[in-house]
């Protein structure tokens, strides 16, 4: 939604509604001035400042001179080995929630990354029969211990920092396959940029995953929600299932809900 279109929706709002609109605006443009907010809302300068102070106490923004900025900034790339120790509990909870949506006999696609590794570890041995398609060598290694699982590794050019394959060969392999479910693990999810990732090399492959599956599940822990990575994979799609952890504030969930995006938490 453009800034101008925002105006007509901001008349006669209660304090709680104003705060939601401020958060939504920061999701879109990452910074806002007090003068912009007083133009949007029919309230005094002091009322706007109290709203910003309240939101800052809740950890939803940071006040700066003349306005406020989003606490969620552009994320920076870290290699797989560095990310493996981050948000371990949250990733395990995401894996449990995702696993509850898998059934024996399913054909699934699993993306790369640390959340994908958590999912592979959790589903290993939990199903009598499963076909898994992946470009992640790390995921393949974990699931290769299960003799009843059928595994398809895309192959392609190998990216050692991510322990995963990419390139035309990997994408062409996915084009020839069809899955019941796709589990995508992006670097970031936001209203501003949709579903995004850092690695340009993996973007075509991730886009093909979305096209090659009947159902799409997007796994992102709460630290990734409201952030942007460098490359856009796809816009937010209400038909996808978005899985996150309980750390995502209800205010943020409400904003995404207004855009047709519902987050699932175990």
Features:
266 residues; alpha/beta; Arc Repressor Mutant, subunit A; Rossmann fold; 2 domains; 7-stranded parallel β-sheet; 3-stranded antiparallel β-sheet; 15 strands; 23% strand
C-alpha termini separation: 31 Å
Protein structure class: alpha/beta
How many strands, which pairing sense, and closed or not: the largest β-sheet?
Answer: 7 strands, parallel
Order of helix and strand elements from N to C terminus: HHEHHEEHHEHEHEEEHEEEHEEEHE
Record field, number of beta strands: 15
Q: What is CATH's topology name of the largest domain? A: Rossmann fold
Helix run count: 11
Radius of gyration: 20 Å
Top-tier CATH class of the largest domain: Alpha Beta
How would you describe this structure to a colleague?
This protein has 266 residues and is α/β, with parallel strands linked by helices. It contains eleven helices and 15 strands. The strands form four sheets. Strands 6-5-4-9-12-14-15 form a seven-stranded parallel sheet, sandwiched between helices. Strands 1-3-2 form a three-stranded antiparallel sheet. The longest helix is centred in the first third of the chain and has 15 residues. The N terminus is likely disordered.
């Amino acid at each position: 939604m453009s800034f101008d279109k925002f105006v007509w929706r901001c008349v006669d709002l209660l304090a709680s509604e104003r705060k939601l609109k401020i958060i939504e605006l920061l999701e879109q443009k990452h910074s806002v001035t007090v003068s912009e907010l007083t133009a949007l809302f029919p309230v005094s300068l002091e009322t706007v400042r109290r709203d910003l102070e309240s939101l800052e106490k809740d950890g939803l923004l940071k006040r700066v001179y003349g306005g406020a900025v989003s606490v969620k900034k552009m994320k920076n790339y870290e290699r797989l080995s560095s990310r493996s120790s981050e948000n371990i509990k949250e990733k395990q909870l995401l894996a449990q929630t995702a696993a509850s949506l898998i059934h024996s006999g399913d054909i699934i696609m699993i993306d790369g990354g640390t959340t994908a590794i958590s999912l592979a570890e959790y589903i290993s041995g939990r199903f009598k029969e499963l076909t898994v398609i992946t470009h992640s060598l790390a995921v393949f290694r974990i699931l290769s211990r299960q003799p009843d699982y059928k595994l398809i590794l895309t192959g392609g050019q190998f990216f050692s920092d991510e322990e995963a394959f990419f390139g035309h060969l990997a994408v062409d392999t996915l084009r020839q396959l069809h899955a019941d479910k796709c589990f995508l693990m992006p670097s970031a999810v936001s209203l501003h940029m949709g579903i995004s990732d850092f690695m340009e090399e993996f973007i075509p492959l991730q886009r093909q995953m979305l096209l090659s599956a009947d159902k799409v599940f997007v796994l992102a822990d709460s630290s990734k929600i409201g952030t942007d990575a460098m490359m856009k994979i796809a816009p937010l799609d209400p038909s996808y299932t978005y899985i996150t952890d309980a750390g995502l504030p209800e205010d943020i969930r409400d904003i995404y809900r207004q855009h047709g995006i519902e987050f699932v938490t175990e």
